[in-house]
Design brief:
With 83 residues, this protein is an all-alpha fold. The protein contains 3 helices and no strands.
Length: 83
């Protein structure tokens, strides 16, 4: 129950900080009752990004390049430590 409460608090904080121009979907709070949680369709729902003409900055090429560089550097670090 503590994890659900913490998650719901994060949902509340995100909704207060959210700017609609970001076009980032917000997570929905989960029910606190376990029976309701078991039958809640939001629990198993995928997060969906609405298609748009403009790609959000956090999904652009710069982010893809950064993730690739980070992945390569982590792989190199792992190989150097795995003797």
């Amino acid at each position: 129950m503590a994890a659900i409460c913490k998650y719901n608090n994060y949902c509340e904080q995100l909704s207060q900080l959210h700017d609609p121009t970001w076009t980032v979907p917000l997570p929905a709070p989960l029910p606190m009752m376990l029976d309701a949680l078991q039958n809640d369709p939001m629990l198993m729902q995928d997060v969906w990004i609405t298609p748009s003409v403009e790609i959000p900055g956090w999904l652009g090429d710069a982010m893809c390049e950064m993730v690739s560089v980070l992945s390569l550097s982590m792989n190199d670090a792992w190989k150097s430590n795995a003797i």
